[in-house]
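haha ok so turns out i had the wrong file open the whole time. this is the CORRECT one, sorry everyone. sequence first:
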Amino acid sequence: MPDILQKYLANKKHHWKACMIAILVLFVFNASFALGAEILLVVGQKDLRAGDLSITNHLENRGFDVVIQEDTIAKSENASGKDLVILSESARSREVGAKFRDVAVPVICSEPWLFSHLGMTGQAKKVDFGRKSRQKKVLIINPDHPLCASCSKEVQVCSKSFFMGWGVPGENAIAVAGLARDPHKCTIFAYDAGVEMPGLVAPSKRVGLFLFRNTANSFTPDGWALFDSAVDWSILSAQTASKAEVQIKNTEE
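then structure:
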């Protein structure tokens, strides 16, 4: 429960109101927090590839508003007012560079060659980040974290083999999954806001996710579950606190 709700519950004068508000806010949020949330999806081309199209349709079916932006014209200002930025693997690192490095908005990155630009890993190609060919599975190394989507051990994420992205994150990272045969190369890793990353202090949540170009088009149910967990974890805390604060403020007035 957010701190703001805990403080409000401590006020005995409004205890019963606080209880009702807390239950209502958390119920509504958990049931439909996606509704009204806006996601910026940065891609490599206007005519979406199969993977980007699958991601867009999936997010929209969940109730998110998805704004598509090509990498050549994307700007850091595009993240303003968004709940999440997703950098597709189709987005070219030479075009995106460090544009979204300092944005105070959660970022999910599936392009390994952007990890260093975002400060999420070191800068050595094929040492700090890279891709591994002919992969279908990830190895869950942190089964207790929400980002693992209740998966454990080896999980098949795609029905077809693909080039799986990986990164070697800093010591303060949340390591969730790795390559099945080389788990120190993380296929899912994250930083919470305010945590020291190899390149800078994370301005907001950051997630590295393994997707390749058309991976999402052949996702297994576990693959989609891990993707959804990355989205939900990235957005969850900020929206929960914001909605709770608004509800409590309105009641106090």
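The radius of gyration is 19 Å.
again sry for the mixup
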